[in-house]
Amino acid sequence: MSLVVRSPELNRPLATASYMKEGLRRFWEQPGKAFATSFLDGRLRRAQASGMKMLRQMAGTLALYRSGLLAYHDAMITRGPLEGTINKIRVLKRGAYGYGDHE
User: Fold this and answer.
1) Are 27 and 42 in contact (CB under 8 A)?
2) 15: pLDDT strictly greater than 90
3) Which 8-state DSSP code applies to residue 3?
């Protein structure tokens, strides 16, 4: 059995995208809006400078939602629990289709 050695250059775009994604998760941990603004702006600049089409597109999308993303740091709450409850209601409604009305 032969061992195939691949060039690190083949994995560089994937590694870059992975590091950018994992680093962006730290946005939610920033101690305040000023830090979050600086953090997000830096990440957007890095994505634009990466030269990768998909990362530039991601940066453009995040830039469109910049004010909404930064609004999280005003109150530090999310709609996650509410959306989870709404999803559970939808699942229950979907499961109830087909029940006959006996009256």
Assistant:
1) no
2) no
3) P
